[in-house]
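Thanks for the sequence, V.! I ran HflC homolog right away. Repeating your input here for the record:
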Amino acid sequence: MGTKIVLSIVLIVVVVAISLTCIRVIKQSKVGIIMRLGKFQKVAETGVHFLIPFLDKMAYVIDLREIVIDFPPQPVITKDNVTMQIDTVVYYKVTDPVRYVFEIANPIAAIENLTATTLRNIIGELDLDETLTSQRYNKCKNENYPDEATDKWGIKVNRVELKNIMPPQDIQVAMEKQMRAERERREAILQAEGNKSAAILQAEGEKQSAILTAEAKKEAMVRVAEGEKESAILVAEGEAEAIRQTAIAKAQGEAEMIKRTQMATAEGLKLVFSAMKEADIDNNILALKSMEALEKMAEGKSTKLVLPSEAVNFLGTFKG
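Predicted structure:
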């Protein structure tokens, strides 16, 4: 009885273990290749799959995502017989898992050799300068990769990129010298252009400064001339006014003096006429003396004569 129980337990454990080994789970973006008795049975898609114990086997699990392979540098020869090393990166994906497993024994090595052969053919048509320029990338990318070779392997090469190009050491030294000379030439050109711009700016600044200085001097000279002109006008007006005032004062003084002289003369005549009248002198003599006195008064510069009333009355006696 105890032996049967032990055997039952052992049998159950074996069955469970075998069942667990027959259950396979395929993850997203992957497929499995199921072999039955050493022969291809089917492709297992994403999900859970049950295998027949001792008959079925999940021989391969293939990744369907794009795969990147960085191959080691490959020697190539340019059109002008320069040997260089080219480091490539290949992007590919599996399109047919069955062919990928059964049509090619080492697909990675096959892709590497096919890529190297294709690049040798491309680089062999280019010289060193063309290979080192950016045109090489465009040509390599646009070059039709031999899909007829990879299609039968269940592989699609999406693109091949040149990660690095390594020319020989002597050419690298020459290229470095050339690049250094080019940098020095560009630096010299930039420095010369900078000096030229600085000189132009300095000359322009000096020009503007000279123009402003000349305009300032011109403005100052104009203001000085206007000031001198106004000063001369004011001086001339002052001198003219002084002369006019002097002439007026002089004329007024002379007129006052003449007036005083005539008044004094008239007063003297008045006294003379009064005295002669009191002395009862002959009228003819009086008239004669009066005329003489009037002649002396008329010799003055004045245009007016001041006569006493006695003289006027006396002269009135000679009417008719």
